[in-house]
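Dear support,

I submitted the protein below through the web form. The confirmation email said the job was done, but the results page showed an empty box. After a refresh the structure appeared. I'm attaching both so you can tell me whether what I see now is the final result or a partial one.
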Amino acid sequence: MATRRTVNSKPQADGEPAHGYGAILVFERLRDEILSLELRPGQLIDESNLAERFKVSRSPVREALVRLAAEGLVQTVPNKGTVVAPLNLDEFPAYVDALDLIQRAVFRLAARHRTEADLVAIRAANEEFRSRVRANDALGMIRQNAILHLAMANTGRNRIQNETYRRILDEGRRTLRLYFRSYGDTLPESLCDAHDAQIAAIATCDEALAERLAREHAEEVHQRFLRFMGERNSSDLSVVYDR
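What the results page shows now:
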């Protein structure tokens, strides 16, 4: 997942941010709202309202929407305009299959090629993820989860595989938001422990164990998500008035 960029642009005299700053600000705010599901799949995005909300012209808004479209978070619908990209849950099993296959290869190569410098970067990314978990920061967890897994992928020294893995992780960001929501956004420390085990397998160059842990991780996400989508909140409620 892309990290936030520091922008040196200063506000203009009339109070509107410079063009570049405005576009990045709008992009980052909308991206967070889409990933958090505050902006719902299929929801119409009105450029005029956004320009008024962020106090920018429509040009930075359009630039931000172009970037969001490139990340697959918005799309243009004929005769309707720009909408938040739909979340196609019918494709979730296929998504998990793809995640499982690429992740197993990523972890195996990481165990084969890792260096001590790689392990330092991976462990630092994992500690930052743990801090986001402890803070119950759902959006931070989504961002840092991608950073951690891409740090593992970089260890494998395969650019094409890494780009494919990045696209799959990006594709699953909103599904991951639902996964975190299944825990009430209070993730158990055991999930961080699972990352610790994965890193330990990579550190000891145990390719078979690293691959097995990658598969177990994908399966846990799959099963947890399915249980969450099947939950009912009214089964223990009575609609009978007791006199």
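Response: this is the final, complete result; the empty box was a page-load delay. Confidence is low (pLDDT under 50) at residues 1-19, 234-243.
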